[in-house]
Design a protein that fits this description.
The complex is a heterodimer of chains A (178) and B (615). Chain A is α+β, with helices and mostly antiparallel strands. Chain A is 51% helix and 10% strand. Chain A is built from 7 helices and 4 strands. In chain A, a hairpin with a 2-residue loop joins strand 3 and strand 4. Chain B is of the alpha/beta class and 615 residues long. Chain B folds into 5 domains: 111 residues, 3-Layer(aba) Sandwich (Glutaredoxin); 203 residues, NADH-ubiquinone oxidoreductase 51kDa subunit (Rossmann fold, 3-Layer(aba) Sandwich), CATH 3.40.50; 84 residues, Ubiquitin-like (UB roll) (Roll); 89 residues, Up-down Bundle (de novo design (two linked rop proteins)), CATH 1.20.1440; 55 residues, Alpha-Beta Plaits (2-Layer Sandwich), CATH 3.30.70.20. In chain B, strands 12-11-15-13-14 form a 5-stranded mixed beta sheet. In chain B, a hairpin with a 4-residue loop joins strand 5 and strand 6. Chain B is globular, with a radius of gyration of 26 Å. The chains are: A alpha+beta (178), B alpha/beta (615). Chains A and B meet through helix 2, helix 4, helix 5, helix 6 and helix 7 of A and helix 3, strand 11, strand 15 and helix 19 of B.
Chain lengths: 178, 615
């Protein structure tokens, strides 16, 4: 379908699942945000096709849906990395140097906040307070929360992901050789 | 299970009396708040269970995962009852020793107990630790005692007795009267009298009305609502039932931040349990009154903490405020009379109804009654959640409970009330926490975030930080907030970058006045507060940045030269070891030198240098 241009196979499958779930949800405006949250949970972002799907179901124009989605920080419109980095920018983290941690991630991954690395491994976002002020400064990698961040720890976190990826690649390689 | 009765509540309470008094077994209360989860409490729990199994203590010892204990800085935390012995910063490898030494041999493990930094000695009993000793838990009365995932635990601590009284014995007017006597003021920030708000909504005739709970805790540095939801979700549900009875509503929503997954999980479970017990749903306690609650997940917009914006958001629209009047008590969610109260407010309601408004009003000041929960963080030793009577001084919160400033640094200011609040300097530390007294010194009570800042904090940078936040979160509907905060941010950035000009301070002040007077909602009207309060107490720092191009706190990167002061340098090498890019050249017994080509200005060495030798 034309609507699904630019999506990979998994994303198209996820979208089909959501389409089948839609039958259960009344076409009322109050379900707009929960629906967008459901889509983002499945696809980790809101591709144009999903926005059209939701708009159609709720009898709204796509621009209306887009307008609501862009208002809220939670929604993103480009695919995040497999290991999304989120750096807390709350007050307690700021006092303890959260901006320095963000900058260090940006420098190490060579992308800016809001961007994804070309290999789609990492992306960087800033989040408002995650409520773990006792551990400031805080960063999340995926769903794991890392407290008392330091510039040295930034490298460690990135390295760990890269080592694991390399390990997986080699194991795959071994299997292929066999 | 069908309909709940008071007799049944009493039966559950009796059945669990020994558990609550810790007389039948040894209870290991492990903190399961977000903070402790992050420091590894789940793994500690597994290790503890393993150790208990090996010691064959399973029958006489119970491990209970509680909500947030409050002393987040010390996590993971374990409290052993009977005895109230407090263990801190536990690791997986410590657990076998705790079981063997404490539970088998009866000797608490000395090295894992709390150590008082002032007296330099271990304090084994939780209630003797200064952090806890100065508190008065009311909204947090069940924290660290009950298992938030067990409704029976809550009932055993007199849970749902307030709702029973409200539904069976009191009329709506009696409930509102009790709230008025209590003097309870909204804990979300503005401090509007709760009883009065309910009275307005009660007086609005309508076929449908709504009770909303604001759990969109967006203030950076505030986490009391999250902790209450994680530790005692039923208290909030019970508070909402009582409010619903008072205004005759039958539907409620909890608007919760999506960033709080654990709180949402526990709330969801609590709603299901309460519904199963007949404490939510139709004909509660056989009173003929019905009420149900749904969780609505916010999608991350600070302005949605504003009541009219929050309601738009539930309706599925952009969360933009609208002018008031009409007030939500007359026209709120879907144009129906609606009350919105904060999590902490609702958590206090059951006790007010159960024990009476006069009991609640017995502590506090003339205009601010009861207790307030504060989240202390920043440059302070004991980071965590504290509940104190209104009227306690800021100094007492920061020094007696908070344990003062770490690393022997000096106190500089305390930021109260989040991005809409203000900074309070040393000279006003004896100000009591009271809505009016705090406003008088240029801050606001807000939701209760207390961020302590030491001498290394630059106040211009803090003003810039808050303005950046406000600017980012401005919804863009009204011009003063959308444009005004942007201009203010640009000026503050200019000053931090060393390009400040004479006249900038005047422009900031003029813009602040205009924004305060003309913005549409609370976010805009209070937005300039951080600028005004820092200007009020730390004008000299602004002037140093503008006129001398100097950042006295050494925080603004553009105003630093990243060189080593050869007179102050003690040749210790701390900067050399800390530098992440090897930009520091140093050998034993020689002065350090920073290679500016390599330096990435990350400030790590500034933080590590104990002799203030880098400038």
């Amino acid at each position: 379908m034309l609507m699904e241009m630019g999506l990979d196979r998994e994303e198209i499958a996820a979208l089909a699942t959501i389409r089948s779930e839609l039958k259960e949800i009344p076409a009322q405006r109050r379900y707009l945000i929960p629906l967008l949250q459901r889509v983002q949970q499945a696809l980790s972002y809101l591709p144009q096709a999903a926005i059209q799907l939701v708009a159609q179901h709720l009898h709204l124009s796509p621009s209306e849906v887009y307008g609501v989605a862009t208002f809220y920080n939670q929604f993103r419109f480009t695919p995040p990395g497999r290991h999304p980095v989120r750096v807390c920018m709350g007050t307690a983290c700021h006092v303890k140097g959260g901006d320095i941690i963000l900058e260090h991630f940006e420098r190490k991954l060579e992308i800016k906040e809001g961007e994804t690395t070309p290999d789609r491994e990492f992306s960087i976002e800033r989040v408002a307070c995650v409520g773990c002020c006792a551990l400031a400064p805080v960063a999340l990698m995926g769903d794991a929360l890392h407290g008392h961040m330091m510039t040295g720890k930034v490298e460690g976190l990135i390295l760990r992901v890269q080592i694991e990826k390399e390990k997986a690649r080699r194991e795959m390689g071994d299997r292929d050789e066999r | 299970m069908g309909r709940m009765t008071v007799a049944e509540l009493e039966r559950i309470k009796t059945e669990h009396a020994e558990r609550m008094a810790f007389t039948d077994k040894t209870y290991l209360l492990l903190c399961g708040g977000t903070g402790c989860h992050a420091t590894g409490s789940l793994k500690v729990k597994d290790a503890l269970l393993d150790a208990l199994e090996q010691a064959e203590l399973g029958a006489t010892v119970d491990v209970i995962e509680t909500g947030c204990n409050g002393f987040c800085a010390m996590g993971p935390i374990l409290v052993v009852h009977p005895g109230d012995i407090f263990y801190q910063k536990l690791k997986v490898k410590d657990m076998a020793e705790v079981v063997q030494s404490h539970l088998v041999e009866g000797k608490p493990v000395e090295r894992l107990l709390y150590k008082d930094p002032a007296a330099k000695k271990r304090i084994p009993v939780q209630s003797d630790i200064p952090f806890f000793a100065h508190q008065m838990p009311r909204a947090l009365r069940n924290k660290g005692i009950i298992d938030p995932e067990q409704i029976d635990d809550y009932i055993a601590r007199d849970g749902y007795r307030g709702a029973a009284r409200a539904l069976l014995e009191l009329g709506p007017d009696d409930i509102i009267e009790e709230m008025k006597i209590s003097g309870m003021r909204g804990r979300g920030g503005a401090g509007f009298p709760t009883g009065m708000k309910w009275a307005f909504a009660k007086a609005s005739p309508s076929d449908l009305k709504y009770v909303l709970c604001n759990a969109d805790e967006g203030d950076p540095g505030a986490f009391m609502d999250r902790s209450i939801l994680e530790a005692d979700p039923h208290a909030v549900l019970e508070g909402m039932v009582i409010a619903a009875k008072a205004i005759d509503a039958h539907k409620g929503y909890i608007y919760a931040r999506t960033e709080y997954p654990l709180a949402i999980k526990r709330l969801d479970l609590a709603i299901r349990q309460a519904t199963e017990y007949g404490l939510l749903g139709e004909d509660i306690f056989g009173s003929g009154f019905g009420f149900e609650i749904e969780i609505y997940q916010g999608a991350g917009a600070f302005v949605c903490g504003e009541e009219t914006a929050l309601m738009r958001s539930i309706e599925g629209r952009r969360g933009m405020p609208r002018p008031r009047p009409p007030f939500p008590a007359h026209k709120g969610l879907w144009e129906k009379p609606t009350i919105l109260n904060n999590v902490e407010t609702f958590a206090n309601v059951p006790q007010i109804v159960r024990k009476g408004g006069a009991w609640y009003a017995s502590v506090g000041t003339d205009t601010s009654k009861g207790t307030k929960v504060f989240a202390i963080s920043g440059d302070v030793n004991n980071i965590g959640l504290v509940e104190v009577p209104m009227g306690t001084s800021l100094r007492s919160i920061i020094y007696d409970i908070g344990g003062g400033i770490p690393k022997k640094r000096k106190f500089k200011a305390v930021q109260l009330g989040g991005p809409s609040g203000g900074c309070v300097p040393e000279a006003h530390l004896d100000t009591p926490v009271d809505f009016e007294a705090i406003a008088k010194v240029g801050a606001i009570m807000g939701s209760g975030g207390v961020i302590v800042m030491d001498e290394n904090t630059c106040m211009v940078d803090m003003a810039r930080f808050f303005m950046d936040f406000i600017q980012e979160e401005s919804c863009g509907k009204c011009t003063p907030c959308r444009e005004g905060t942007r201009r203010q941010l640009q000026i503050l950035e200019k000053i931090c970058n060393g390009d400040g000009e004479p006249g900038d301070i005047d422009t900031l002040e003029a813009l602040s006045d205009t924004i305060r007077e003309t913005a549409l909602c609370g976010l805009g009207q209070t937005g300039p507060n951080p600028v005004l309060s820092t200007l009020r107490y730390f004008r000299d720092e602004f002037e140093a940045h503008i006129h001398e191009k100097r950042c006295p706190a050494k925080r603004c990167v553009s105003l630093l030269s990243f060189e080593v002061d050869t007179e102050k340098c003690t040749k210790c090498g701390a900067c050399y070891r800390a530098c992440p890019v090897d930009a520091v050249e140093w050998k034993k017994k020689e002065l350090a030198r920073i290679d500016l080509e390599k330096c990435i200005q990350c400030m790590t060495c500034f933080d590590k240098c104990r002799f203030d030798a880098i400038y």
